[in-house]
From TrEMBL:
Keywords: Heme, Iron, Metal-binding, Oxidoreductase. It is an enzyme of class 1 (oxidoreductase). Residues 147-224 form the Cytochrome b5 heme-binding domain. Residues 88-112 have a biased composition (Low complexity). The keyword Ribonucleoprotein does not apply. GO terms for cellular component: cytoplasm. Belongs to the cytochrome b5 family. Its EC number is 1.7.1.1. Residues 1-117 are annotated as: Disordered. This is Nitrate reductase [NADH]. It holds the Pfam family Cyt-b5. It comes from Wickerhamomyces ciferrii (strain ATCC 14091 / BCRC 22168 / CBS 111 / JCM 3599 / NBRC 0793 / NRRL Y-1031 F-60-10) (Yeast).
Length: 224
């Protein structure tokens, strides 16, 4: 008569198969497993790099930091953008544009610079402007003679302080009433008496509008 076998529980059968498999593992495999390093032991071989020092070799040898600057620049009142009084630029060197620079309008030069002389009372530029617009006959000729055609010989006849003509850019002017108003003095303006004074005028007064200033002293045109 056959023996009746009760079928095994599937869970028990799986556990029994796993136990038999563990028993059949070779000793070399077990030793290899035992020799495997743990996850924690691997950190003992990591080399820690020290931080790089920013000190110089001399400072490291002294063993301390360099002392702070003993003379820091301070601003008066703690206001930003202020310069200490001792560091402010000298006013004598702070001229801009520099003297005689081309950036200065009408910069002085050795040729254009002339000294003014003291004028008599009533001979200021305002006094001349008042006389020039007064309606007086400053030409010194009759109205029906205007404008004259002045030759070189005729021009030479008018070279005294009381009868002074000159030529400025082809136009003849009677500068007799203006002589005492000249800022450079009578002696200087008389250098143009009875002759063409254009070159001297351009040398010293090129910026002056003589046509406006002497409009009522205009005599005529120079024909040479």
């Amino acid at each position: 008569m056959e023996e009746f076998k009760v079928p095994k529980n599937p869970i028990q059968a799986r556990l029994e198969a796993q136990r038999k498999a563990n028993q059949s593992t070779s000793p070399s495999t077990k030793n290899a497993v035992n020799r495997a390093p743990s996850s924690q032991s691997g950190f003992h071989n990591i080399r820690v790099i020290p931080p790089v020092s920013t000190l110089s070799s001399q400072e490291r040898s002294r063993g301390h930091l360099a002392p702070p600057n003993s003379n820091p620049i301070t601003r008066p009142g703690g206001l930003p953008g202020r310069i200490p009084p001792g560091m402010a630029p000298s006013s004598s060197n702070a001229s801009f544009p520099s003297i005689n620079s081309a950036q200065r309008a009408g910069g002085s030069s050795s040729q254009g610079a002339r000294k003014k002389v003291g004028l008599e009372p009533g001979c200021s530029p305002l006094d001349w402007a008042r006389l020039n617009s007064s309606g007086q006959n400053l030409r010194g000729i009759f109205p029906n003679e205007f404008p004259l055609k002045v030759s070189k010989e005729l021009l030479k006849n008018h070279k005294s302080q009381n009868d002074c003509w000159t030529v400025l850019k082809g136009k003849v002017y009677n500068i007799t009433p203006y002589v005492k108003f000249h800022p450079g003095g009578i002696e200087e303006i008389m250098k143009c008496a009875g002759r063409d004074g254009t070159s001297l005028f351009n040398k010293y007064h090129s910026w002056v509008n003589f046509e406006r200033m002497l409009e009522n002293c205009f005599v005529g045109f120079y024909i040479g």
